[in-house]
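ok so I'm stuck.
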Amino acid sequence: MRPIGLILVLALGACAGGGTSTTPLPAAQQNWTISAGGSEQSEAVQALDYYPNTITIHAGDAITWSNSTAIPHTVSIPRAGQAPPPGPPNPAKVGGNVFDGTTYISSGFLTKGQTYSVTFTQPGTYAYYCVVHPPEMGGTVVVLPAGAPLPMSAAQYASAASADLATDLQAGLSSVELFPYAAGGTHLSAGISPGLPGAKPSQATVLRFLDETDFNANDTIPVGTTLTWTNESNNVPHTVTFPALGQPPPPGPPDQVPPSGGSTYDGTMLTNSGVMKPGTSYSLTFTKPGTYTYYCLFHDGPAGMIGTVTVN
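replied:
not stuck anymore, here's the structure
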C-alpha cells in the first residue's frame, strides 16, 4: 500500500506600516492545513479521522481542512465545552469562517476536493467533530496567545499526520482478513472494520460488500438460494438495496428510504433492507434467474459500494 501523503503549507504574511507611524505591526498569521479523512484502494478503505488529529496554533492563525475522499465529512466546531447540535447531520454550512469560542460553526458537507478555512481569534482548547462520523472522527485545536512557543513545526505535524494516516489505512486494509464467513458462501459482509462490530468504533472502515477476503462481491447462486448480509463494521451504517431490474437506486437520504420488498426478490420491485447498523443482518431469497445489481445507499456513488448477484 502506498501511504497517502499529507502536505502542510506554511504561509506567512505581514502588514507593514508606512511613513513614521509607531503603530505596532500585527503578528504574521500562519496557515495550517489538515486532512479530513483519507482513502485507499479506489475509495474502498476509508480513514475516519483528522490528520493531524491535534494541533497547537497561535491566536490569529488559520486552519484549512481539505477532503480528498469520495465520502462527505464536516468540520463542526461547537462552543468551548459543548457538543455539536443533536439531530441528523446538517449538510449546510453554519456560521462564518472566524471562531472565537462563543458560537457554533460548521463547514457543512465537504465533498471531494473541497476545503474549509477558519481563523481562531481567542486562546483556548477547542474540540471539533465530523457530524457524519461520530464518535470516531474528532479533533482538537489548542490556541495559544500570539508569540507563545509552539510544540511542533508545520513539518513535524506533516510527518506525524502522514504516519497516522498510513497506520489507519493499513488497519482498514487488514480488516478484510477478519471476514468471518466461508469464502464464496451465502453469508456476506456489508462493510467491515478493524475489530468487527464488537470493538469500539474504529478510525478505519471498508466500504465494500465482501464474500471473501477481497474487495468484491459478485456472486453466482441457484434459484431459491437465500443470501444473508451482516454489517461487520463498528462505525458506519449500510444498506442492501436491490432496485427493480434495470432501474437506478432510489433517490433521497438513505435513512429516509424505508425497508421494502419483503424477504424474496425476483427483480420486479425495489427491495431494501433499510438502515443496517453495525452488527445487524439482512436476508433475501432469490426466486427468479437474472443478474441483479445492489447498492449501499450511503456509499454507492463515488465510493463504489455496489455488488451483483447472478441467479441461475
